[in-house]
Here is the input.
Amino acid sequence: MEQSKIRNFSIIAHIDHGKSTLADRILEQTEAVAKRDMEDQILDNMDLERERGITIKAHAVTLVYRANDGEAYTFNLIDTPGHVDFNYEVSRSLAACEGAVLVVDASQGIEAQTLANTYLAVDAGLEVVPVLNKIDLISADPDKVAAEIEDVIGIPAEDAPRISAKTGLNIKAVMEKIVTDIPAPQGDPDMPLRALIFDSYYDAYRGVIAYVRIKEGTVHPGDTIRMMAVGSEFTVVECGILRATSLEPAKSLSAGEVGYITASIKNVREARVGDTITLADRPAAEPLPGYRAVQPMVFCGVYPADGAHYADLRDALEKLQLNDAALTFEPETSVALGFGFRCGFLGLLHMEIIQERLEREYNLDLITTAPSVVYHITKTDGTKLSIDNPTNYPDPSHIALAEEPIANAHIYSPTEFVGNIMELCQDRRGIFKDMKYIDTDRVDIHYELPLNEIIYDFFDALKSRTRGYASFDYELIGYRKSELVKLDIMLNGEVVDALSFIIHAEKAYPRARKMVEKLKEKIPRQLFEVPVQACIGGKIIARETVKAMRKDVLAKCYGGDITRKKKLLEKQKEGKKRMRQLGTVEVPQEAFMAVLKLDE
Amino acid sequence: MNKPFSLYIHIPFCKSKCPYCDFYSARPEEDDVFDRYLAALCARLAVYGEKYGERLLHTVYFGGGTPSVFGAKRLCRVLEKVKEQFNVAENAEITTECNPADVDVSFFETLKRGGFNRISMGMQSANEAELKILGRRHTAETVREAVEAAREASIDNVSVDLMLGLPNSNLETLKSSIDFCAALEADHVSAYILKIEPGTPFAKQELNLPDEDGTADQYLFAVNELKKHGYAQYEISNFARPGKESRHNLQYWRCGEYLGLGPAAHSFMEGRRFYFPRDLEGFLNGNVPTDDGAGGGFSEFAMLSLRLTEGLQRKICETRFENGGALFDGVLEGCKHLPKNLIHADYERISLTAEGFLVSNAILAEILPG
Here is the structure.
C-alpha cells in the first residue's frame, strides 16, 4: 500500500460530544458496513459501552475513502477510550496516529476532557483537526466555540467543519480535512521491524489479537517476533487488516499500516499496550518510546456474596484479566467476608466497570469494600511500605512518615458554580492553584487534591453541586506527607476488618460519625443490643447502638394452622443465610455497600 | 394405644367482618346456608366417625367466624352428631366462641343442655373507643351481661379475648381492659398482639399504632398485670387461673392430634397435616381436604413446645423421638449464647421468658435445626 494514501487518525472528544456518532457516520460514508449491519455506535462492542455511552477499550477499523481528488485513501480510524482512567491507553492509541479529529460540541464548548485529550494529541505530535459538532441544536453557537478553540487551545478553527454527526450534515467535509490536513505516515518498510501495540484482546480460538501500528519494517505470517519490553517471543500465525465487522488476513503489514497480529499468545500480559514488536532475527536497536507498565491506582476487596461462588469469581477475574492488563487481583481473606480478592484498578470508573461486568457477564453477586489508594509509609526502622489495604496498615507507633498520592485536578464549569466548587474542593483538602477564564462565563479551576478524596464520590458531589455542568479531569502528580489514621469499626466490641479504612486525621471524626449512623440504620435489631463503634488505635471516637429487638412473634395460630408458622420459621432461617455472621452479630450485605456511599 | 385427640369445628359466618380479622368467614347471604352447612358438617362427622370413632375425643372447640351467629340450636345439633359419631370423654372440654352481642341466658341454657361447658367470649377490649375502631358489635357492658348470663346458665368456665397493641392504645387503656377481665372473674384470658394482616381493611388504613417498643411494653405489662390478678401465663398469648388452662389449646402446642372441620380448618391426624381450603361453597359440596405434608417432626414439636411456659423438656423429647436426647442437646447448644433475659435453659428444660416470647420467631430461627 502506498504510504502517501494512508491516513492514520483518532477521534478525540469530551464525553457526549459525539465522538462515536461521528465514527459511525464515517463508517457509513465509506460503506465499510452494510446498512443492514449498521447499529448505532458500532465501534462500541461491549453492551456496557453502548449503555454508558462511553468507550472503554480502543477499537480500530480500516476504511477506504474516495476523495474529491479522485484518489482512494486508506483511513485507519482508531477510537480511543474517553476517560481519565484510561489515559495511558489513549496516549498509546494517539501514538499510533499522525492526526486527531477533535470533536467539540458547538453548544457546550470546551470541556475538561477536550483539553486533556488535545494536550495528549499535541504531546504525541499529532495534527489536530477541529470539528464543531451538533450545529443542528438550537443552542449551538459555532462562532463562539470556534473562537474558544483558538483562544484556549491555540489552534486555528475558523474553517473547522461545522457538522451534525447525528443528522449526517457535512461529514464529507470532515473526510476531506482528514485527507488534506493529516499527514501521511512515514517510515522505512525495509528497516528492522518496530510495531506499536495500541490495544489487544483475547479471543478464545486464536489467543491474543494484538492491534498494531507498524512504524518501521514489515511483518509476515511465520516471522518470529519479540515483545521488546516483556521479552517473550512468538511465531506470527496471521496478520491483516481490521475491517468494521471482521478481520481480513493479509500477506504482510508494513511501515505506515495499521492492522492485527495473532501469534498464539495466551494472555494479554504478553502483548501489553505500548510495547514494541520487533523481529527476533533482526531486532530493532531501540523500542518505540512511551511504554510503561500500567500501575493500578485504586484498590478494593471484592468478595462473592455467597462464599460458595469464590471459585466462580476467580475464574471470572481470570477471564477479564485475559483482556485487561491493567486489572490486578490476589486472594485476600476477611474475617467478615470470607474468601475474596484484593483487586487493583486504574481508577474509579475502571473499578465500576469491572464490578459491573462481573455481575452482569458472570452473574455474580458481589460485596466490595471501600476503595483505597496506595499510601507510602516509612517505618521508624527505615523500611518503606506501599499500603493499599487497611489490614496491612502498620501500628501508628511504628510509622515515621506517611505519604498519600496527590492529583492535579482541573474543573471546567460555568462561573456561577465557582463558589460551590471551591467549597467542595476545600472540604476535600484541596489546595487552590489558580483559576482561568475560558470565556466570559466559563472557568478552569485548578486544584491539587489528595487522590483518596477523589475516589469516594467526588465526581457525584461535583455533579450535584453544579447541576451536572462541571467537568473534571485529573492526573497523579506524586506523593505528599500526610496525617493519616486507620479507622476501625467495631460491632459488639469486635473489629470488622472489611469496614476499616485509611483516612486523613482531620476527616476521621465526621466520617466515623456517618459510618456508625449508617450502620445503625442498616443493621436490623438483634436479640441483644449491638454497640456500633468507630475507633482509631483502640480509642473510640463515635458510637451508636442498635437496640435489642423487642417484638418478633406470631401471637396466634389460625385454626391450628401450624404450616403457616413453620413456613414463617423457614423463611426466617433463609433470611439468616443471607446475612453475614460477624461474631454474634448478623449484618445484611447491604450494610457493607451502604457505608461506601455515605454522602447520598 | 392412641392418645386422645381433639376436634375443631369452624363456623365460617359473621354478621359483620371486623377490620383486623383474617379468619375465614362468609356473610350468610342465602337463607338456607346455615342448614346446608349443618348438613355438610354432619356428613363430614359421619365420614370421620367411621375412621376415628373408636378413639377417645377429649376436647371439642367451635371457633369462627362467629359460632354464636349460627345459633345455639344448630351448635347443639352439631355437638349431638359429634357425640353420636365419636367416643367423647366424660370430662371432655367443650368450648364455643361467642360474640357477646348475640347471646342471652336462654342461649347459654340451650348450650348447657347440649353439653357445652366452656365459653370463649370475644371481648377484645373494655374501652368503647377501641371497640369502635375494632368494628365490634358490642360494648364492655354487653360483655359483662353476657358473662353473667353464661354463669346464670351454669356455664362457669369462661374465657375472654383481649387485644394488645391496638390503635391509639397505651398502658392505661390496657390496664383498664385487664382490670375489667379481673372484675368479671374470667377464668381464662387470651391476650393477642394485634397483627396487621395483609388484605384486611386495617392494612389499608392509616392507624396510630404503638411502635415495636410500645407494643412490647404492653405485652410485658399485660403478663405482669394478669399475674397480679391470678392469671398465670401458660402460652405466648394465653393466661389462666389455676387448672383453667384450655386443654384444647394445649393439644395444639403439645403437638397432639386434632381434626378440624370447616373451610380453612386444619387437621393433624396420624402424622399427616391437612386442611379444608378457604372455600365455603367447596365445603358445602363435599370437597375433600388438601394434604399439607407430614407433621410432628422434631423442629415442629420444639417450635410448638416453646410457645408454652412449660417449654421443651428432655424427658418428653426422649419418649417422643428416637434420638430425642441428642435433638434436645442440639437446641440446648444453640441457647448458650442467647441473652439470659430471654430464655431459661438447663439439662431438663428449655423455656422462654415473657421477653423471650416477644422475640420467639428470632429465637426459634436461631436455635432450631433445619
Notes: Chain B has a mean pLDDT of 94. Chain B touches chain A through 49 residues (CB under 8 Å). Chain B has two domains: 5-252, 298-370. Chain B is about 40% helix and 20% strand.
